[in-house]
Batch of 4 targets.
Target 1
Amino acid sequence: MSFIVGLTGGIGCGKSKVADLFAEQGAGIIDTDVIAHQLTKSGGDAIAAIRSAFGGACITDDGALDRAIMRKLIFSNTAAKLRLEQILHPLILEQVKVQLRQLQAKPYVIIVVPLLAESSAFRQRVQRVLVVDCIEDTQIARVIGRNRMTDAEVRAIIAQQTSRTDRLRLADDVINNDDGLENLAAQVSVLHQRYSNILFDH
Ligand SMILES: Nc1ncnc2c1ncn2[C@@H]1O[C@H](COP(=O)(O)OP(=O)(O)O)[C@@H](O)[C@H]1O
Ligand SMILES: [Mg+2]
């Protein structure tokens, strides 16, 4: 079995960017966001269950999850959010296991889990937690640049996520991403050396 690092961080903190940099170094990467998208695209494995739980109104004409409608629904409705997670999380975990088997030859595997702080099932599966962290102003500026959202929209999402303090409390390792990409790559490189040399025999 591979040595597994759980990578998490708030929206826009740089999880995907950090994962790309680890991939360049030779790490195995599993991105649960990518898996969630595949499960909910047209013909995805979660569509039937979502349709029967939430009705056809949240499915687009071509059979994909309508993300805008679902986002609105779960934003103010905790029960709906839980329901969606109950559908998605087991399917995501299943796919993670499949990909872990495919990545057995890698020196170690980084699993990107935005909801690591909220998911004990995932925390139990990782040997180490890596948090990519930055100040809120950096988060907001980067998400506005990436998604054309407003300052208020990004702040509302941040307010719903686990707080920065609580996330950092889970961390075995922290990458700070307030600086430029060169600095980020240097931090990844140091951690890559460390993770490559961890002897893991569970
Ligand atoms: N150090 C950095 N300098 C400049 N832009 C960055 C840096 N880190 C990330 N970005 C950019 O900020 C945005 C958010 O990063 P991303 O990795 O997508 O965050 P996350 O996956 O955590 O939501 C992306 O457009 C990304 O290219
Ligand atoms: Mg991302």
Target 2
Amino acid sequence: MKLAVITGATRPGRQTPKQSLWIVKNAAQIEDVEVEHVDLKDYPMPFFNEPISPRYNPNRDIDPTVQKWLSKIAEFDAYIVVTPEYNHTIPGELKNAFDFMTWELKQKPAAVASHGSVGGARAALTLKEVLSEGQAAVIPKFSAVHGISELIDEEGNLDATAAANPYGPQAQLDGMLAELKWYSDALVAARA
Ligand SMILES: Cc1cc2nc3c(=O)[nH]c(=O)nc-3n(C[C@H](O)[C@H](O)[C@H](O)COP(=O)(O)O)c2cc1C
């Protein structure tokens, strides 16, 4: 599985990369998984500004950073999008990045990882809808973290007590990664 872990927040002082790094570390330990951290901060795109919906416009005049983003996203078999919750939904810059897409996610599995006061649940639900309309096969399992500032450090290490909880964030992440791998292997074969 060629996996992208996408950090969907860009503000200074953001917590989201900690959840992404934790996921990257865990994914890297799974056999047959090649994982890359794709940070939205490295793709400072304009606000969506195209005159025609990208999927219906064969003659797009694409901003170079948007093209770099689309080419990067197209490289992968599977995706985990990591989002915080801002005002009960996903950050504007993350939605904006999806508005530029055409068929990059088509028939590929995508999972949602979130954090916030209720684990980012409201943002996660919105993100699932956006990914689904983006033509991804959104998988059922998810990772939702409550209290990220205390639970995960800057290097992406999860607090030991939380890690040992059989119903905690580590168990949830393990389940999500296993399910994503299953869908990815199945869909790689199907697309071939
Ligand atoms: C603009 C803004 C709106 C927020 N709205 C919510 C919210 O609706 N629900 C929630 O649980 N947390 C909310 N928070 C708290 C964030 O989930 C928390 O700050 C988290 O660390 C944000 O991710 P980030 O640090 O990567 O930006 C909000 C934070 C910001 C900056």
Target 3
Amino acid sequence: MSNVLIYVEAENNSAKKTSLEAVSYGATVAQMLGGKAIALATAALAADKTEELAKYGADKVLHAAQNPSQSEEIAQLIVAAAHQENVTVILAAKSIVVDLALPMVGAKLQASVATNITELPELSNGFVVRRSAYSGKAITKVELSGKIKVLSIKKNASELREYHKPLLLEPFSVEITPSKISVKEVKKQTGEVLLSEADIVVSAGRGLKGPENWGMIEELAKVLGAATACSKPVSDMNWRPHHEHVGQTGIKISPNLYIAIGISGAIQHLAGVNASKVIVVINKDPEAPFFKAADYGIVGDAFEVVPKLTQALKAVL
Ligand SMILES: Cc1cc2nc3c(=O)[nH]c(=O)nc-3n(C[C@H](O)[C@H](O)[C@H](O)COP(=O)(O)OP(=O)(O)OC[C@H]3O[C@@H](n4cnc5c(N)ncnc54)[C@H](O)[C@@H]3O)c2cc1C
């Protein structure tokens, strides 16, 4: 039997939405392989929130007593669970921590590792996955030939599916050797919605003229329950914090909706946002390159369009 192990990250005691997507993805893969989907959560997930993992497809939930924060320690936890459950596929939603932990898991288990997976695997001829490459400008198709496969799943790689399985909760404990790296300081991101997790992102560029004009961007984001983002020059000039910078040299995001306001659409910016499902561009220049990548475009002055859009949305949301 080919079991699938899904590592779950939690925040504020609940599973991250991207991790629930990974559980749902893992449940579908387990179904395709005729095995079980086993979710591995740390103590960061509250016991009364473990039910959600069964809802989204976990046949069993291993609830670890520990809450390791270092990738090296998380890798040890995953490897121990993989041995216990005899799994052939290990996966997790792509994140900064997961990006560091999974290659260590792959090395320890001599597994085939593929990151940034964008779709369910094809199993008709081996184990073939599609992954986003070259800053989202290309999709590569790779075959994983190792006995164990390790995957990081990109946001929106598959639909969040509800399975409503009964919860089978099992405590899990393993002796973890402390990591040789220790974190000295954590700077929490500002903003109510985490950019990397957000379904909707409202982003603005140099067209906004100065940091004092971001009030209308934040208001639009609030009405939509969105995260805020910005172009590189905006963060370089300290108009906005660096963690909001998206693009080739910033965060790469793939929300359901990306609204770009006063951003020209340079190739380096697009590299971080072109995996968004729907792109809306607001720009006063009808020749702005961003319109070529847009699903919907509004040619107009942001200072007129954005407040009207916010008012219109307030009336319906
Ligand atoms: C190696 C390298 C890496 C880079 N990495 C990144 C990256 O990761 N992310 C990134 O964003 N950039 C990156 N850049 C920079 C990139 O090339 C562009 O310079 C940058 O994206 C432009 O930012 P912008 O669109 O905010 O500003 P601008 O290019 O100045 O565009 C401003 C836009 O606002 C519009 N506008 C002006 N006034 C208004 C108004 N009132 N209403 C509506 N629209 C208005 C203008 O028509 C224009 O299209 C990188 C560059 C290099 C060389």
Target 4
Amino acid sequence: MKVQTSPKKYIDLAKDVAKPIISKIGINNFKRIVKNFPELVLPWFAHSPLLSSIYYAFISSAFHREHYSVVYGKLKYAEELKLAKNSDFLLRRNIHRLEKGLLMRPRRDIFAKDYIEETVKSYKNALLANQNEVTTNSELQWAYDVLKQYFSIVGSEPIIDKARKIFFELAPLASNNQCVPYKRDLASSLTVDYEQFLALSYRRRSVRWYLQKPVPRDLIDNAIKAAALSPSACNRQPFEFRIFDEPELVQKVASIPMGTKGFNHNFPAIIVVVGKLRAYFSERDRHIIYIDASLASMSLMYAFESLGLSSCPIN
Ligand SMILES: Cc1cc2nc3c(=O)[nH]c(=O)nc-3n(C[C@H](O)[C@H](O)[C@H](O)COP(=O)(O)O)c2cc1C
């Protein structure tokens, strides 16, 4: 359908048509009719983006929760930035952007001017928040290595020099430059060949009936270790896996989604994948939680299968 670019006449039309009907039958009856006969009203609301927004604002609540989550996520992102709180998502995204700048050919003498200050601040906050695990935190090490490399090659500009000063005043980490540039180990040959991968793909199926045995936690941890290596947009990793394996809790959680009726009582464990909209400043990114979490979930399920555990994705 062609999307109208001048919706005003349709809004006027909507008002003209709806007003007398609503005044005659009342708003609740109007809503009921709209709900019961969407095929009658949908062509009308589908005339323009604005009219469809009116439909979803006043007639259908189907997007209310999503709108709320997106707005709330934006607010949280802005708050973390403003209060200079520790923001993993901002730090990951910006370190990733710096990495890309470092890899450019030819590399520019000056880059990242518009975000280097917030990146260093965010790194400083992450250092403060993780003081007890500075030496074991691979994310901090990664951020440190990239920032150090960046400041060693970038030219001089007031804003960059200011950030450089803040960075070098912080305690240095024991860097061995492992993270810059990130090196793939291509020396040893890959032990998984295509036939083996295909066999794994055939083996994985959605399994709905399980042995009544606890799932060893270390196997779940191992699978998550593999899933955590999945790609994510700007490396934000905007989701987490929440693991439930206490029978009572499993039952409670398993009864929440649709699609588990009739077999959820036999789940020995369940993992909830939670997307974090607070990782984004813009609505345009709102679907990335689904993409990134799904990519990781696929890896998770393959990893489970390789460990002798079956799984089933649920709604
Ligand atoms: C996003 C998604 C949601 C799913 N939701 C359910 C569900 O709620 N209940 C269920 O029994 N299976 C669910 N499945 C499993 C699919 O039915 C299954 O993947 C599909 O039939 C293909 O079968 P296979 O996984 O054995 O290859 C879901 C799969 C995906 C990818």
